[in-house]
Amino acid sequence: MKRLVSVVLLVCLLPLPALAAPFSLEDLFAMEWAADPQIAPDGEQVVYVRNFADRQADRWRSNLWRIDSDGDGHRPLTSGMQRDLSPAFSPDGERVAFVRAGEGGAQLHVLWLESGQSTQLSQLPAAPSGITWSPDGRYLAFSMLVETPDEPMAQLPRKPEGADWAEPAKVIDRLHYRQDGAGYLKPGDRHLFVIAADGGAPRQLTEGELDHGSNPAWTPDGESLIFAANLGDDAEHEPVRSHLHRLDIDSGEIEQLTEGEVSHGSPAVSPDGRYIAFTGFDDERMSYHMPRLYVLDRETGDYEQLLAELDRPIVQPVWDRRSRGLYFRYTSEGVTRLGYTDLGGDMRELAADMGGVSNSRPYGSGSFSVSENGRYAFPLTDVTHPADVAVGRNGENTRLTDINGVLFAGRDIANAEELWVESSHDDRRIQAWLVKPADFDPDKQYPLILEIHGGPHADYGPRFASEMQLFASAGYLVLYVNPRGSTSYGEEFAQLIHHAYPSQDHDDLMSAVDAVEGRDYVDSDRLYITGGSGGGVLSAWAISKTDRFRAAVVAKPVINWFSFALYADASAFFSKYWFPAMPWEDPEHYMTYSPISRVGEVNTPTMLLTGEADYRTPMPESEQYYQALKLRDVPAALVRIPDSSHSLSNRPTQLMSKVAHILAWFERYSGE
Fold first, then answer.
1. Which residues contact 63 (CB under 8 A, 6 or more apart)?
2. 3-class DSSP state for residue 80?
3. Which tops the pLDDT comparison, 281 or 199?
């Protein structure tokens, strides 16, 4: 008997394998992820933004953390329920400037790394952006909105003391008067400022009723700032076009450096001061222009394109310390990568799988930084984890953090299978991914969700996405596709839907569904479709052309291009770049590609899901479609997310609500 008891005790004391639980809505409160990793000038440590959810306030928060480049010394630099953002090392590496956004607004702060002490530098009336240190470390440059005094158009009688009158009228006289995520804009323009790094009043460097850009770059002598802006009389009507300018800090004089009908931005001055790297394109009024890499010689004023043969979008140029080459970020076939090129155009890839910063859906995201010795830091992701911090040099890369390691060790995390299919329209190769439940069994059958990305000029890839994980945890296969119009496959591929959206991109999507529907484990009687923004457009379009889907959730869609072009928050862009003419000049074109024109062909039970504060695809778009479906007696529901902008994820519970309603709608029409 004693022997039996001893054996039982021994078994009880042995470590048992953890029972993994499905990834759940509750895990959105526990999950954290890295963003904006900034490596010190000597390459020995990284400071990054660590994002998390505030369960009590239902807000996204962030603090600054640091970690040594060998993985040691991982600890927080700031704490608290606010948002600490945009860290920037001083040239000597001893201080970090950052923005703290809280209830009192957003202000500049500086933190001393040796002591851990920090101080608030500013008392600004608006949020600063584009923070950058002067080469000598004495100043910080930034941009900020400067409000224009609002003079009333009409005078009312004097209000009696204690009277309860209605709020005064709001007079709008600008073309761009509201912005998704920001609401109705305060009248004013962005201007450039400098502030002493040890505090004091900021000095405004530019003035006038024109935006002067948002990300200035210092020249090495500290005498000038390079910035990108449209300072012409047509600025309000030409939101895409911009030129490089040089601002002399002492005199305030501004010199325009580039010419033409172009969009030039993201300036980076070489350490020796001779060159300015930038990205841009010639403006040909296309719905998509691919950003390319250029270098301007300040001695001659001429500039030339680098990597003309790289048919991929290039962003964020960063010089090496010898002024001989540039690091940059680009995306190819759904994977965001870090590249390097010398001035002769000899290029190599240094890292892949960057991103995971925007982790609701698997979009590309993230930025990198480079030290003086060539070590770089970047956010690393894959389908199974959000962004962690990684460092590398010359293509030899190391992941430093595993922020969600403990949480995910107890969760069933789904992975994805990459596949390529041929489009039924023209046999073009189309890339897609199939997410399978973590406990996937090929001998069982699973329902399938087609989830369509927005943009439409964007791309999905093998990146972590909480929505896909939640769908997979609920027992669904999830198919996501990069149809024509998507980026990361070359400019021609992205421009195939120019003035023809939606069109053959629908064929690409259905070809991907066809390719997986025939697999034994796919239940062809339980196919579902959803997508947001541009994906909402294509979802609404698809259910007017096929009845193969048991139910649809059309999220934040455009239903009527005529109303969208005149009501969305960027009408000057959409009306000129997405359409061949203004709505009143060619109403037939607008209606031909509007899903509302095909609502008479829809039989699929359809839910509309949109944020009430969405100014990109405003609520009336969804309401039109909902009313049309109800008038036709098609099963329909309209879900309005209060106080939510276009992202539908401004707050953790808004993202939860989106996913929960999609799953509830599909479950209602599961046939079980």
1. 49, 50, 52, 76, 77, 78, 79, 80, 84
2. coil
3. 281
Asked if 147 contacts 188 with a C-beta cutoff of 8 angstroms, the reply is: yes
pTM here? Answer: 0.94
Structure tokens at 259: 């010419």
Helix axes 504-517, 534-542, angle to 10 degrees: 70
Q: How far apart are CA 602 and CA 534, in angstroms?
A: 18
Q: In whole angstroms, give the CA distance from residue 259 to residue 294.
A: 14
Q: Which long-range contacts (CB under 8 A, 24 or more apart) does 242-247 make?
A: 242/213, 242/280, 244/276, 244/278, 244/296, 245/213, 246/219, 247/192, 247/205, 247/206, 247/216
- Please report, for residues 185, 213, 319, the alpha-carbon distance to residue 134 in angstroms, rounded to integers and kept in the order given: 31, 18, 16
Q: What is the model's pLDDT at position 3?
A: 36
SS3 call for 31: coil
Q: Which pair of tokens denotes residue 641?
A: 């997310």
The count of other CB atoms within 10 Å of the CB of residue 130 is 18
Q: Interior CA angle at 206 toward 204 and 208, to 5°?
A: 120
DSSP state of 16: P
Position 328, amino acid = F
- pLDDT exceeds cutoff 50 at 356: yes
Amino acid code (one letter) for 327: Y
What does the alpha-carbon distance between residue 611 and residue 609 come to, in Å, rounded to a whole number? 7
pLDDT digits (tens, 9 = 90+) for 125-175: 999 999 999 999 999 999 999 998 878 889 899 999 999 999 988 889 899
Q: Read off φ and ψ for residue 284, nearest 5 degrees.
A: -115, 15
- For residue 450 the two structure tokens come to 């087609």
CA–CA dist 269, 375 (Å, integer): 19
Q: Which residues contact 192 (CB under 8 A, 6 or more apart)?
A: 141, 142, 143, 204, 205, 206, 212, 213, 216, 225, 227, 247
What does the pLDDT look like over 442-468, one tens digit per residue? 999 999 999 999 999 999 999 999 999
With beta carbons less than 8 A apart as the criterion, state whether 96 and 49 touch.
no
Distance CA 669, CA 672 (A): 8
- pLDDT tens digit sequence for 513-556: 999 999 999 999 999 999 999 999 999 999 999 999 999 999 99
CA distance linking residue 568 with residue 566, whole number of Å: 6
